[in-house]
Amino acid sequence: MEQKDLLISRMEDLAAKAAKAGFAASRFLTPAEAHNVAAHFARRRDIALGADFSLAFDGGYEGAERVRAIFLNADWGEYDRSELFTALRIEIAPRESLGHRDILGAAMALGIERAAIGDIFDSPLALLCLPELSAYIAENLIKAGRIRVKLSNMDLSVLPAKAENLIVKTDTVASPRLDAVLSTAFGLPRSKAANLIEAGRVSLNHEVRLQPSKEVCEGALLSVRGMGRAKLLEVGGTSKKGRVFIKMGLYK
Q1: Pairing of strands 202-204, 221-224
Q2: CATH at residue 107
Q3: Is residue 242 a contact partner of residue 158, using CB atoms and an 8 Å limit?
């Protein structure tokens, strides 16, 4: 069974659990996994969830990259973020510095799976994790590389919302095809954009797409391996020559 099929099978199990208990939540999902789960249940909402259930994605703060899938029965009530996420502040000596890879590597060295850790922050230096593992992580993660660290619980409300830092571009395209949108976003000749797509280097909403003619919808995320990411912010009207106005945001 492929990884995507295994993921969907686990989410179906959680949906079934929520149908009986009223609530169920996954571990942390990557953006691609969250996209696949959302797409699956959007197609099968009437079968998998039913009218009384909702599926939400939450990473413990606004704009989270890694999120948990939350299945909820409307009669069960609302969930409390503090019961699903724990934020751990990471203290180091003033002259020291740590990167995300250092922190994540130290946590993984404790035998913790990646899905148990959410986003990692630079300011304040902190990480999100599953509550049931927070005490173990705080007690045992005492060094990241050669740097000594001290972890302690912090309030989720202190975590800053993730702001999108974008360079905005506007242009017109014959149609919002993937190759045309990619060309505008990264300032590439359309032929080169098509070559990148066909070479499997381009992802649309976290999935590799090989068709240059694939239509891109407003709000879609694009990434090119080795070049960066962009978002289609707006698809506007048409020019006198029948071309479509688009607004792109290139992540800095």
Answers
A1: antiparallel
A2: 3.30.70.330
A3: no
Q: Prior bond to 160 cis, omega within 30?
A: no
SS3 27: strand
Q: How many CA atoms lie within 13 A of 175 on its CB side?
A: 5
Range of the domain at 9: 3-79
Which region among 74-78, 86-90, 156-160, 177-181 has the lowest average model confidence (pLDDT)?
A: 74-78
The predicted structure's pLDDT at residue 42: 81
- Using pLDDT thresholds of 50, 70 and 90, give the confidence band for residue 1: low
Q: What DSSP string runs through 43-90? A: HSHHHHT-TTEEEEEE-SSTT-SSEEEEEEETTT----HHHH-EEEEE
Q: How many angstroms separate the Cα of 10 from the Cα of each of 6, 141, 172, 210, 230?
A: 6, 29, 43, 28, 31
The answer to whether 243 touches 173, Cβ cutoff 8 Å, is: yes
- d(C-alpha 15, C-alpha 72), whole Å: 9
More confident: 44 or 142: 142
Domain boundary (136, 158, 180) is at 158
Spatial separation of the C-alpha atoms in residues 35 and 7, rounded to whole Å: 11
| CA 127 – CA 101 distance, rounded (Å) | 12
